[in-house]
Structures are given as structure tokens and as C-alpha cells.
């Protein structure tokens, strides 16, 4: 019995064909999702000015298919955490994230959201990755618009290359307690 369990698993032609169609579906969904990001801007501080600047005509976030902000978490799939998050706000930020549907992504916009920045004190959350799974960090205080666009492109690459499925229970991401 032990010898049998050590034998390599050889996929049948039917399984290989299913794998091919799953990969094709995943690539198609990844392509569609990376160019249709709906941002929820959770803006608390001065970095919000940079968010306004990337949404304006000069830097034009719409070139990346991410220009429409949604102020309901149920209609958004990209949470932009923009600015300082203090400990009193952290439960509300987490609640917003939990209300977003899967698949969803998180960007830490600026050094305050990424690591607390220079607010190294008892009142400020030292990085949103203590409560949320962050997909991309954008450094800077505040970040240049080009840095944010670079972060969006990194995220788009990540979305295009991750596996996508459809149907109930397709996505399960555990929250950091
Ligand atoms: S990173 Fe700098 S600009 Fe952005 S919220 Fe913090 S202090 Fe303000």
C-alpha cells in the first residue's frame, strides 16, 4: 500500500483539458479585473491631496481603468488607505474591508498607511498590515503621483497573474486578527 501511495499522479487527458480551460478562464478574468478597478478611497489626512491629483486630468487614473471612486464598500474592489490611521479608526477601517466583496485588494497609500510614518506613538496604527492583508505599498510622504501609478501597475500585474475562479466560495482570504 505504501509503495502505491508513492507513485506519481498522472493526469488524464480529460483533467488536462479541464486545466486548460480553467487557465483560460482565469487569464480572461484576470485581464478584465485588472482594467476595471473600483476604488474605495479611505482618506484621512494630507495624502488625500495626492489622490485628488492622480484622479485629475494631468495624471489621469482613468488610463488604468481605476478612475471611478465608489463610496460604498459593497461596490468597490480596491481599498485605498490614504493617510494616518489611528487606533480608534482601525476597527472602522477593518469593517469597511470586511464589507467589500471578494475578490478585493488593498493599497497602503503613503508612508503613514504603510508603517505609521513619523507618528511613532501610542495613538497611531503602525501600518495597516497589522489589521488588513495589504497587496501593494506606496512609499513617500506624500507619494508622488507617479509612485501611485507605479503601485497601480504593480497591482494590475499581480491581479493578472493570480488565479481567478467564479462561483460561491471561490475566494477566501483570512483577516489578520
Ligand atoms: S504620509 Fe505624509 S502626506 Fe501622507 S498622510 Fe502621512 S504625513 Fe500626510
Please provide a written account of the structure.
With 177 residues, the protein is of the alpha/beta class. A four-stranded parallel beta sheet has the order 1-2-3-4. The mean pLDDT is 88. The termini are far apart. Strand 3 (105-109), helix 5 (111-115) and strand 4 (136-138) form a beta-alpha-beta unit. 38% of the residues lie in helices and 10% in strands. Iron/sulfur cluster is lined by residues 45-47, 83-84, 110-112, 117, 141-142.
Bin the strand percentage.
Answer: 5-15%
Biggest sheet architecture: 4 strands, parallel
For this structure, what is the CATH class of the domain at 37-158?
Alpha Beta
What order do the strands of the largest sheet run in, or round the barrel if closed?
Answer: 1-2-3-4
Summarize the helix and strand pattern as letters: HHEHEHEHEH
Instruction: List low-pLDDT spans.
Output: none
Distance between the termini: 42 Å
Task: Write out key terms for the chains shown.
177 residues, four-stranded parallel beta sheet, Rossmann fold, alpha/beta, 4 strands, binds iron/sulfur cluster
Amino acid at each position: 500500500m505504501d509503495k502505491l501511495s508513492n507513485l506519481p499522479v498522472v493526469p488524464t487527458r480529460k483533467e488536462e483539458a479541464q486545466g486548460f480551460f480553467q487557465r483560460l478562464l482565469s487569464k480572461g478574468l484576470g485581464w478584465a479585473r485588472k482594467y476595471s478597478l473600483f476604488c474605495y478611497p479611505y482618506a484621512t489626512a494630507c495624502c488625500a491631496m495626492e489622490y485628488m491629483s492622480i484622479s485629475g486630468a494631468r495624471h489621469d487614473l482613468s488610463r488604468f481603468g481605476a478612475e471611478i471612486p465608489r463610496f460604498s464598500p459593497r461596490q468597490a474592489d480596491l481599498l485605498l488607505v490614504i493617510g494616518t490611521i489611528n487606533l480608534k479608526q482601525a476597527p472602522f477601517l477593518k469593517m469597511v474591508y470586511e464589507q467589500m466583496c471578494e475578490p478585493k485588494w488593498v493599497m497602503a497609500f503613503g508612508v503613514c498607511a504603510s508603517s505609521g510614518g513619523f507618528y511613532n506613538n501610542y495613538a497611531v496604527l503602525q501600518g495597516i498590515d497589522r489589521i488588513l492583508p495589504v497587496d501593494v505599498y506606496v512609499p513617500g510622504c506624500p507619494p508622488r503621483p507617479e509612485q501611485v501609478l507605479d503601485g497601480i501597475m504593480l497591482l494590475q500585474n499581480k491581479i493578472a497573474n493570480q488565479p481567478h475562479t467564479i462561483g460561491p466560495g471561490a475566494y477566501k482570504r483570512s483577516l489578520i486578527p
